[in-house]
Amino acid sequence: MSGRPQFDESIVIAAAIDVFKQRGFAAASISDLTEATGLSRSSLYQRFGDKDGLFREVLAAYTERVLQRMNSAQSGTARGRMEATLHAFISDGSSKIAGCLIARSCSEIPELSDGGTAAARKGASIQREFLANIVRQGIATGELAKDTDVDAMAWHYLGVLQAVSNFPKAGAGEAVIKRMIDVAMLAWPAPATN
Amino acid sequence: MSGRPQFDESIVIAAAIDVFKQRGFAAASISDLTEATGLSRSSLYQRFGDKDGLFREVLAAYTERVLQRMNSAQSGTARGRMEATLHAFISDGSSKIAGCLIARSCSEIPELSDGGTAAARKGASIQREFLANIVRQGIATGELAKDTDVDAMAWHYLGVLQAVSNFPKAGAGEAVIKRMIDVAMLAWPAPATN
DNA sequence: TGATTGTTGGAACGATCGGTCCATGATGTC
DNA sequence: GACATCATGGACCGATCGTTCCAACAATCA
Question: How much is the pLDDT for B72?
């Protein structure tokens, strides 16, 4: 109630991420969002314009955050990096809400505005490009054959990444998800006998 | 408007499948459903109880339908069957709505009722069991090693299957999806030199 | 201190939500 | 042909949706 904003924007975004992750865009109500973020309706609309604007900012922030998490596993062989990246999406098992907001948003695309659709596609595209770069590194270091299909490889591991995120909701435990990653890594030629 | 129902139930279900596939459970309104199915509100509530009841029946019918589609590729090697099963989920490119309703529902689980959640999980479980059976066949015929991790393999290919269904929404063309399947099949040891 | 600035809480808007209800009217049975 | 049956169309319900608006208020600057 004063001349300057009374909220920490990054905390607001973080809270909104959780709401959208759990409820999706369509089902997340303004009340849910004000309650979770602590913002009043006025402040929310003042700052973000409307629900769609908030969603777009949330999605962009989430994408950035996810990219940082993926970047945290940068050392080692390309194969090791890919494996570590996938492991980074195993849900903590703790109170965290399962699922990847980008994946969820992509499946919700028919419901989204043009801006929301673009943000979702961009998020998926950034994830995919990150995975593609790991594959390219593998080719550069000789871990992978030069004619490796980078795009197809990236799409495949994006699918696995989304599966890692979402399967806990379908009832998969952490153990079987780790073994699933092992299976997925079979599609990456073994490093040994080259 | 007379003593007996005036609608073809399978057509109603088919229309409702499309609505839920496109909008998801939460965002699909009763108006959407009556409009798409041709049923009046009264008939819809009379026959299915409520929106949740309709959703559960739709999900069950969809699961059955998907299982039939998967069953259509039964001959050949286990590896060939797996490959054909994945190909069966490539969207027609035609007017059909992309995405697998089961996958979509699983990502929406936090929003669903207990019954809806159970139906979604059951659908995913049936798909997974189908894939697991292909893997088991592969083990039985000697295509796969006896210590192959059946569960992990099934989860992996379920992830790929969902990716095949959903990635068109994220902007993937049919060609790259086919190549993605090729990559995924690298996780299935080549049949040749055994 | 007085005027200005700009955020804030909360009331209120029309629209739409899922769900209920009843009068209507065609059908099948006697 | 009179009756009972039952799906049907459409009006209607309270609740909630996204959004707008305004009075109240603290902070800043003169």
Answer: 84
Structure tokens at B68: 């039939």
pLDDT at A73: 73
Amino acid at B98: A
Asked if the Cβ–Cβ distance from A159 to B158 is below 8 Å, we say no
pTM for the structure as a whole = 0.92
| B30's tokens | 């009763």
| A60: confidence class by pLDDT, cuts 50, 70, 90 | very high
Paired tokens of A24: 């999706």
Give the best residue of A18, A95, A106, A107 to mutate against chain B (max B CB count within 10 A): A107
Residues of B in contact with A22 (CB under 8 A): 110
Using alpha carbons, list the distances in angstroms from residue B181 to A31, B157, B165, B192.
42, 10, 12, 19
The C-alpha atoms of residue B183 and residue B181 are separated, in whole angstroms, by 5
Q: What is the pLDDT of residue A194?
A: 45
Note the pLDDT tens digit of each residue in A67-91: 998 988 777 899 999 999 999 999 8
Residue with tokens 């299982």: B67
CA distance B24 to B15: 13
Span CA (A183) to C1' (C14), Å: 54
State whether the beta carbon of A31 lies below 7 angstroms from any atom of strand C: no
What is the per-residue pLDDT for B19? Answer: 96
Whole-angstrom Cα distance, residue A160 to residue B64?
25
| Interchain proximity B125–A171, CB inside 8 Å | yes
CA of B6 to C1' of D1 (A): 26
